[in-house]
Design brief:
Blueprint lengths: L47 H29 L4 H23 L1 H27 L2 H25 L6 H24 L2 H29 L12 H29 L4 H23 L1 H27 L2 H25 L6 H23 L3 H4 L3
Helix pairs in contact: 1-2, 1-3, 1-5, 1-6, 1-7, 2-3, 3-4, 4-5, 5-6, 6-8, 7-8, 7-9, 7-11, 8-9, 9-10, 10-11
């Protein structure tokens, strides 16, 4: 099955899966299943089942991120609320198409109607919070509870009981609680809790992606060439995808908070730094603690250069902006050389530099368009 892929508002899936290509399922070099010249991902890392899992991980985690961002934009009355909400709706379209590609167009439309309803209830909750209408808030919470039952019943039936309604209702309650806690904390000014719960919500959706993809693959093994979603290599890929994609998402949000002078900037930046710690630990689990520290030093530098770019933009200092871009170019060379050496040439510096340029350019485009109020570019369809 080939899932629909789109260029997403927040590049949760465009986040450099590159380190996974250099290691085997057990974190050791695998010469027999690696293209040394091209750096292509081995079949252990990329299979029909693991590709399905990666796609669902991408879409579900992006939903959690965009939902939190859209709720923040809504309560703050930000000018880019409509575009953020549009990106969230586009994510729903993509997720519904993914469901439809497995279960048919009618099921895809049924899923979309149910899934969209819970986004609407979150919007109702935000509006009620802004209006300080406790009755309306309680009504939204009641509707979210009813949604859980309907969504769980749909997935239980679609997977022919491989996912149980009772378990699904519990998992959906966790999802809803995480998003509401992040939002309520934001409104209350408890920004550490805001971003802690955002990160937890993103991570939780990767577990949902694994569970749903596992049920689908078990249901239609021939469609996925009898491959599995839960191999060590697939787990490695999922972990790296989560770390890298969360980095991209948090970097964009932190840059927005920085240029706006938002009160939660420090907490957003702190979450981004925690992501760096997690990513460095992942590198260390393969290449050792010394490599982890070296990676962290290099990786952290490019976050600092993005901060410099934001500060220079706020100060309208074109020379400082150019300097930050130059430093980002120098970073790409250093980061690429590190990964080339770590993978013993399985990932080539030249290719890595090009991939890192895409990453840097995406983040700068998202930030520049936000600063220029060209929000359609900030949240592309």
């Amino acid at each position: 099955m080939k899932m629909k892929k789109s260029y997403l508002a927040v590049p949760l899936s465009a986040a450099l899966l590159i380190p996974a290509a250099g290691v085997s399922a057990h974190g050791h070099e695998d010469h027999s299943k690696m293209s040394h010249s091209s750096g292509k991902v081995s079949l252990d890392v990329s299979s029909p089942a693991s590709d399905l899992r990666a796609t669902l991980d991408q879409l579900l985690s992006e939903h959690a991120y965009l939902a939190v961002v859209t709720m923040q934009k809504g309560i703050d009355g930000k000018e880019d609320f409509e575009q953020a909400a549009g990106a969230l709706n586009q994510n729903t379209d993509d997720l519904s198409a993914a469901v439809g590609s497995v279960y048919g167009d009618e099921a895809g439309e049924a899923f979309k109607e149910i899934w969209s309803s819970h986004i609407g209830y979150f919007v109702d909750y935000v509006k009620a919070t802004g209006a300080k209408d406790e009755d309306a808030k309680q009504k939204a919470l009641k509707e979210l509870d009813e949604y859980r039952v309907e969504q769980a019943a749909f997935l239980d039936k679609a997977t022919e009981g491989r996912l149980k309604a009772a378990d699904l209702e519990g998992g959906l309650k966790v999802h809803i609680t995480q998003l509401l806690t992040s939002f309520d904390s934001y409104v209350a000014g408890d920004y550490d809790a805001t971003y802690s719960n955002l990160r937890i919500a993103i991570e939780h959706m990767y577990m949902v992606g694994e569970g749903l993809s596992g049920a689908i693959v078990d249901q239609y093994p021939d469609k996925f060439k009898n491959t599995k979603v839960d191999t060590p290599a697939a787990d490695l890929r999922a972990g790296l995808n989560r770390n890298f994609s969360e980095h991209a998402a948090l970097a964009i949000l932190t840059m927005q908070k920085g240029i706006d002078g938002a009160k939660d900037f420090d907490a957003a930046a702190g979450a981004l730094n925690e992501n760096t710690d997690d990513l460095s630990a992942s590198i260390g689990s393969v290449y050792g603690s010394e490599a982890a520290q070296e990676f962290k030093k290099i990786w952290s530098s490019h976050i600092g250069y993005f901060v410099d770019y934001v500060k220079a933009t706020g100060a309208k200092d074109e020379e400082a902006r150019d300097m930050a871009v130059q430093e980002l170019d120098e970073y790409r060379v250093e980061q690429a050389a590190f990964l080339d050496a770590a993978t013993e040439g399985r990932l080539k510096s030249k290719d890595l530099e090009e991939g890192l340029k895409v990453h840097v350019d995406q983040l700068l485009l998202a930030f520049n368009s936000y600063n220029e109020k060209d929000y359609d570019k900030t949240y592309p369809a």
